[in-house]
Amino acid sequence: MTGPLTIRAVDGIGEIEPGDDLAGIVHAHLAEPLATGDVVVVTSKIVSKAAGLATRGDRDDLLVAETDRVVARRGATRIVRTHHGLTLAAAGIDASNIAAGTVIALPPDPDADARILRDRLVELSGVEIAVIVTDTAGRAWRVGQTDIAIGAAGIHPSLSFDGVTDPYGNPLVVTAPAVADEIAGAADLVAGKLGGRPVVVVSGLPVELLDPSAAGAASLIRDEDGDLFGLGARDAVLAAVSDDVEVSRGFPAAQADDDLLALARAGVDPALVAVTEHDGVVTITVVGTGSGAHVEAGRLLERVRVLARALRRDVTISVV
Length: 320
Prior knowledge:
Elements: E1 6-9, H1 22-28, E2 39-43, H2 44-50, E3 54-55, H3 59-66, E4 67-74, E5 77-82, E6 87-89, E7 103-104, H4 110-125, E8 130-139, E9 142-153, H5 179-191, E10 199-203, H6 233-240, H7 260-265, E11 273-278, E12 281-286, H8 291-310, E13 316-319
Parallel strand pairs: 2-8, 12-13
Antiparallel strand pairs: 1-10, 2-10, 3-7, 4-5, 5-6, 8-9, 11-12
């Protein structure tokens, strides 16, 4: 069971410069020595600063470089999937808490940075601790932002309760608290956005959470094939009618009950057109007479093309 948690911000860190020994700076400013089981929570901003990632280059160029694919776009706002696999506004590029006129990107491998920080802090403190690297993110369907874990070392980022029974005898099937994200959010409450305190120490967590061999925060990223919200609503429509071969990545993997032909036939007049599929070739056959049959064939052609894109089906469409 979890007892009382203590969450304390580390004061006096000051400005981080490229090449700084981040772990050494953190250790030197601790008001209390680290204890076994402590989790040191560090913002990605200072990790990026120490890595020299701040730039006065063009923000849009940096956004393009950090983007794996666009998830949603509204005017100048872009929600993108980064090369890390994270889905963030503007790829997590930030211009706050940094010199005016500069922007800074996320560290390219936050889990590796967390491991480096952890190993160095363990060396300096002589106790087993964990490290979480955080960034601020919005949430679909929710206003506002919260901090999440984008890097982790020495701690299980999530816990699975699959197979556990609740007090009423109900089996838990999909319950898996994202512990690292919960810690990141709690740390942000104490650090604040404008307090100049980018490091927080959390004490009192269950010791079973700590594990030097635990997976990093990348394990919290949902695989694209299992992502049911890989594109924004408007963007999914645009992607479905696009000829861009890459946009299919935004759609979830097809399910066994996704029947392309059944969906294509819905709403069309079978007296005018028929549709069949064989070896990846969808054939639309005009069976009626007159111009109405040809119009219906054209409508069915577009319906099949859009459905095939949304279902991530690679088919050739023929009209006879």
